[in-house]
Structure prediction request, 192 residues.
Amino acid sequence: MKEPIEELLWESGVLLKGHFLLTSGLHSEFYFEKFKVLEKPEVTSLLCSKIAIQFSTSKIDRVIGPTTGGIILAYEVARQLETLTGIAEEDGKGGRTIRRGTSIEKGENILIVDDVLTTGGSLKATVEAVLAKKGLVSGIAVLIDRSPKTLDLGYKMYAVYKKVVKNYLPDDCPLCRKNIPLTRKGGIKEVK
Prediction:
């Protein structure tokens, strides 16, 4: 029997099974169509409530989310925690920056929220952007943790849903050997 969160992800079209080409060039049997969560405000609100509850006893002054999906989730978590929100945008140099009128006061307690954790790259860059503004990272939360191993980013970490997903090099992909059609990440066009 699937847990309720997993069942919700399947029903919402977030969790997909097949043969997927990821942005990294790797292949995977599972794919998370993360924007399917954001299509349904009631699902977004429910999943974000899990994060808000997890951090409800922490002093959070602001919730920051990296572009793009993290922005909407950070907004909803901040709304539920009744605090401020902000955006960590790509800076064009491989990092992230806090701008667009968002100011972080020195010592402000920041919760970082993102959609899917795979390698931790966007979260690490968001942590650096918060620290550059002299904010204090009070925790990190993601809707889905699909990382192959537990990542230690140095802060309290919470995932609403965790599913370890094995990825394959194209030359060593058992799905390719079974001639399962390859689907591009984020779409349903076949590439084979």
